[in-house]
Design a protein that fits this description.
Elements (H helix, E strand, L loop, with lengths): L11 H8 L4 H10 L5 E4 L2 E4 L1 H15 L1
Antiparallel strand pairs: 1-2
Helix pairs in contact: 1-2
Length: 65
């Protein structure tokens, strides 16, 4: 469970570490399917706002309850 997120924008690699995902490809699959946290591009680089990641995790927890 994510207790605290950094104040900076997150990379797909950061999500792999924070959420203990099997690979960065999981993040890109979520993006293609529209099921993961909202992300945005900075040039060709994908970034995630920590607040959006938190909101997404919270929404998953609410659905599981």
């Amino acid at each position: 469970m994510i207790r605290s997120l950094p104040d900076q924008y997150l990379t797909p690699e950061d999500l792999v570490i924070l959420l203990r995902l099997p690979s960065v490809e999981t993040v890109y699959q979520w993006r293609r399917k529209g099921t993961g946290p909202r992300g945005f591009r900075v040039g060709r680089h994908l970034r995630f706002d920590p607040q959006d990641v938190r909101a997404w995790v919270d929404s998953l927890r609410e659905r599981a309850a």
